[in-house]
Amino acid sequence: MKRSHIAALLATFATITSLNAHAAISVRDDDGNLVTIDKPAQRILALAPHITELLFAAGGGDKIAGVVSYSDYPEAAKKLPQVGDNRQFDMERIIAMKPDLIVVWMHGSAERQIAMLRQLKVPIFHSEPRKLADIPDSLERLGQLMGTESVAKPVAAQLRGQLASLTARYAQRPPVRMFYQVWDKPLYTLSGASIVSDAMRVCGAQNIFAALKVVAPVVTQEGVLQEDPEAIFGTSEKSDPRSEGGLAMWRAFPSMKAVRSNNLFRLNGDLLNRAGPRMIEGTAALCEKIELARLHRTNPAAQSAP
Predict the structure, then answer these.
(1) What's this model's pTM, rounded to 2 decimal places?
(2) Which of 231, 229, 225, 220 is nearest to 265 (CA)?
(3) How far is CA 244 from the centre of its chain?
């Protein structure tokens, strides 16, 4: 074979290699790790409900091959195949789906499960927004991995605008000390390391248990009484949104500031407990209730059932 022909083949190979390298997509996940895929992802596993919401919002709903339990938003997510829950993945089903991207979330038993997923040699993106501002950033990066930037970018810009508006309106308002009740049996809350605490900050509120080191600590009723928050927030049950649920326990302590001022509030847990696009909407609802608590300071007549 002539040298000129070999040179031509090498040049062609170099060109193809260069094109393939250019086609590769690389982004940083929420841990700062580089995630690289050869081409836009077409078969994605969304292994947390908030991830499913992020992928849909970024224009990739039709690229999701599998989800986990409680992935119920948007409506189309309910029809997607499930590959497990936050305790256990169905590895056989995951392998059969042949995913080209896996988006995961860290939780109690996640490390062992994610170690098993890494054996598949499929790119893994860790989704863990820690601040509200991280949500539109994550959405954009997922859009890059799916090749849906034309959808993801304007949605991210809209979320940033909504967050900026909330921050400008509420962040400098007089502070309200609040307790966020995730569950009542046992009594769970969230510390300052939780993204929910960042939502409180945007609203000008202070988390009474922000200093605790555990993200989702168990606290005591006595501990809450000692802190005597001005407002207490719980989440409503879908079965009966009018029910106070676990908040009713505090009415046994009429001398508490939150009870005395009628500042026992219910919120939609799906909006605030999932770090997806709807969390900005959930933060707006939180801010409105916090502002109502401020109103109760100066206008007792405004106190009404939450």
Answers:
(1) 0.86
(2) 231
(3) 25
